[in-house]
Design brief:
Blueprint: H1 14-17, E1 67-69, E2 76-81, E3 87-92, E4 97-101, E5 109-113, E6 120-125, E7 131-136, E8 140-147, E9 152-160, E10 165-170, E11 176-181, E12 185-190, E13 196-202, E14 208-214, E15 228-234, E16 239-244, E17 248-253, H2 255-258, E18 264-269, E19 275-280, E20 284-289, E21 295-300, E22 317-322, E23 328-333, E24 337-342, E25 348-353, E26 358-363, E27 369-374, E28 379-383, E29 388-393, E30 400-406, E31 411-416, E32 421-424
């Protein structure tokens, strides 16, 4: 692999970091705009009037979004926002990725991320905003670096070590990233001082479904290297903590230790980094201490809902989020409910009824306001203290697969099954 060294991004003020007016489209899309499901939504209109209405179907004509991005021609699986400037990256089932602005109406295309031959499903911006990494179902991981204060993204490298990439995560303070694969492996790479492979981790017998770097327990001394640990889960019911770059397991928790064989599929790290919540496809949630691997609690979310005889396909935990401002954990299910657990007793404080399958939950930083997305095409804001729905975002004609927050939660960018991203203010 060739890797060209480059200078870092200047640390200018946010206003001078990126000028959206200088972004230029590099793609000329010959698709007839009238064929796109969002093409008839103007910047100043909240209503999308179809030419014909099937009287047998109930159609929501409302659209309270600010604007939309519609370059994708298939479902959008990846959406992430830049940590410093108004940039968004999206990737989808059309094998394409795009970087575009979120503060212009309509959004301005910055660059297309090419090179994938199957759905682009994972990745995002690094915490410092200098790097962009994407991963696809083709097994490829591709790396870009910012240039011209974020107005250009230069392709730097690519690796193809696995059949299918399942997730990508960045270290919060170091120039490192990791990705997981459908064969159960996890891989760790450094970005600086050069692009370099650090570890390949084999320990799961099933697909490695999620991973996260664990912050060091104490700051490293001036002459010591910072301790780096990665936690991974699998649908084989195991959880492993790894020491990087040695690749040695700190601990491994088996299904027998959890007292049931849960197919773990997602996780959420506590803001302190001292514990992690992991969710399973059968409605189970476990809380694990990240330092020692102690099992703090196990929760049967299904038992906390009012729904009975829930079909197996509705039991999956699709979203988990810790609240910084209140001692609660939000858990969203395919069944269309969100359970708010008290993290002291692990009892349900309240249940929020979404109606359709929940796809993601995330708290607005530093608040008790929870954002959720669902397969009914909506995003909603809740006050978890009272259970009140504060706001609902509409405009999609199919499910919202996920979302990203910007401007400290004041802006929401959605990723939908119809291939359109909406921006809500």
């Amino acid at each position: 692999m060739n890797h060209e060294q480059g200078s870092g991004i200047p640390s200018d003020e946010e206003e001078s970091y990126f000028d959206p007016n200088s972004a230029q489209d590099i793609i000329h899309d010959d698709e007839n705009e009238e064929d796109h499901p969002m093409s008839d939504v103007s910047d100043n209109e909240d209503q999308d009037q179809p030419d014909e209405i099937n009287e047998d179907e109930e159609i929501d004509l409302s659209n309270n979004s600010l604007t939309y991005f519609d370059k994708h021609t298939d479902s959008i699986f990846l959406v992430d926002t830049h940590p410093k400037v108004p940039l968004v990256v999206t990737g989808g089932g059309d094998d394409r990725g795009y970087v575009w602005t979120s503060n212009a109406v309509p959004p301005k295309l910055v660059t297309q991320l090419s090179g994938h031959t199957d759905s682009l499903v994972a990745g995002g911006f690094s915490p410092d905003g200098e790097w962009l990494v994407t991963g696809g179902m083709d097994g490829r991981v591709r790396i870009w670096r910012a240039r011209a204060r974020g107005q250009k993204w230069e392709f730097r490298d690519s690796v193809e070590e696995v059949e299918e990439v399942t997730w990508i995560t960045f270290h919060p303070t170091q120039p490192l990233f990791a990705f997981g694969a459908s064969n159960g492996s996890a891989w760790v790479y450094s970005l600086l001082p050069k692009f370099e492979h650090l570890s390949v981790l084999y320990g799961h017998s099933g697909s490695c479904t999620a991973g996260v770097f664990i912050p060091a327990a104490a700051p490293a001394a001036d002459d010591d290297e910072e301790e780096i640990n990665l936690l991974t889960i699998s649908d084989d019911g195991t959880l492993i903590s790894w020491s990087i770059p040695t690749g040695v397991q700190n601990y491994k928790i088996s299904p027998q230790q959890f007292h049931y064989e849960a197919p773990w599929i997602n996780l959420s790290l506590h803001p302190t980094g001292t514990s992690v919540a992991i969710g399973a496809a059968d409605g189970k949630v476990a809380i694990v201490g990240t330092r020692t691997g102690s099992i703090i609690a196990t929760v049967d979310v299904l038992g906390a809902t009012a729904k009975t005889d829930m079909p197996e396909e509705e039991q999956s935990v699709e979203g988990i989020a810790w609240c910084e401002a209140m001692s609660v954990l939000a858990v969203g299910l395919v069944a269309g409910v969100i359970c708010i657990f008290d993290t002291g007793s692990w009892r349900v404080r309240r249940t929020l009824d979404v109606g359709e399958a929940v796809t993601k939950v995330e708290f607005v930083p530093g608040s008790t306001e929870l954002i959720s997305s669902a397969m009914d095409g909506t995003v909603r804001k809740w006050d978890v203290r009272s259970g009140e729905q504060l706001w609902k975002g509409t405009g999609h004609s199919s499910g919202v697969l996920g979302f990203a927050l910007a401007d400290s939660g004041r802006t929401i960018i959605t990723a939908s099954d119809e291939g359109v991203a909406l921006i809500y203010k």
